[in-house]
Amino acid sequence: MVQPGQVAERSLEMSGRPVRRMAAADRQHRIALLIAQSGYVAISELAGHLGVSQMTVRRDLDALAAAGSLERAPGGAVATRGQFGARIDVVEPGIDERIRRNSHAKAKIGEAAAGIVEDGQTIAVDIGSTALCLAHALKSRDVRIFTNSLKIGASLAHSRPSVYVPGGEVRGSEPSVVGAMARSLLESLRFDWFFLGASGLCADGLFDYSLEDTDIKRTLMAQSSRTVALVDSSKFGRRSIVRIDDLDGIDMLVTDARPEGSVAEALASAGVDVRPVD
């Protein structure tokens, strides 16, 4: 385990220089990365490295603990491994790499999810490679689609669906639209379905890499009549930095293989309609 005094050194290796005056979301994302990699961070070390007060760091740690991204410990915080011992993924692969991974399974998931949608409905589509497969399967459908993925929005620009992208801050390699402006618009709308992407699905919930994208995911879940998780089986038993929600926050799971073990038990307990395409 990396000792508290090594946190700043590890941070410098990652970024090339100390990061100063970050926005709260960026600061918390940085903290979550450091904890996931080193296992422990001290409040005093983080305060010095980030150039903020220890009180600010404590607030950040409390926010991350509430999101399930870490656990508080005396003088700092530790990485949470979860009661089911799932793997934690820290760095998100690029969108092009994710599109190539399990591409056949993702295409089948996208086609199956498209079959749930009825013409005339208004749906929200998450970012991600499996969500992109769903978008491709909807190209000839008479539906209204709201998405914060610029890649999905561009791919549907000359297709039959009416496509809407909120305004806001553009982030990431995908890229996606996030922030208060995007959230404010989406909170004024209602959707028949939200098709949710996730980087991990465990018995203790759904997970993602990005605090900012997760904020939009939660907003779309709250504004939708039903939420469908699009998750291929390679993500079962995986956790990443941010916990999106409990499994009872989703109504349906469309996947390529039926879950087993504790994941299957937790989905059944949460009343999730599991629909494997194979």
Give the CATH topology of the largest domain.
Answer: Rossmann fold
Shape: globular
Strand content: 15-25%
Mean pLDDT: 84
Account of the protein in words:
By secondary structure, this protein is of the alpha/beta class. It folds into two domains: 4-80, Orthogonal Bundle (Arc Repressor Mutant, subunit A), CATH 1.10.10.10; 95-276, Rossmann fold. Helix content is 38%, strand content 23%. It is built from eleven helices and 17 strands. Helix 7 (129-137) links the parallel strand 5 (122-125) and strand 6. Helix 2 crosses helix 4 (54-66) and helix 3 (43-50) crosses helix 4. The termini are far apart. Mean pLDDT is 84; it is low at 1-20 and 82-87.
How do you describe this structure in short?
This protein has helices at residues 7-15, 24-38, 43-50, 54-66, 95-100, 103-114, 129-137, 150-155, 180-186, 211-222, 261-270; strands spanning 40-42, 71-73, 76-78, 87-89, 122-125, 144-147, 162-164, 169-171, 176-178, 191-197, 200-202, 205-208, 224-230, 238-240, 242-245, 252-255, 273-276.
What topology does this entry show?
Blueprint: H1 7-15, H2 24-38, E1 40-42, H3 43-50, H4 54-66, E2 71-73, E3 76-78, E4 87-89, H5 95-100, H6 103-114, E5 122-125, H7 129-137, E6 144-147, H8 150-155, E7 162-164, E8 169-171, E9 176-178, H9 180-186, E10 191-197, E11 200-202, E12 205-208, H10 211-222, E13 224-230, E14 238-240, E15 242-245, E16 252-255, H11 261-270, E17 273-276
Parallel strand pairs: 4-14, 5-6, 5-10, 6-7, 10-13, 13-16, 16-17
Antiparallel strand pairs: 1-3, 2-3, 8-9, 11-12, 12-15
Helix pairs in contact: 2-4, 3-4, 6-7
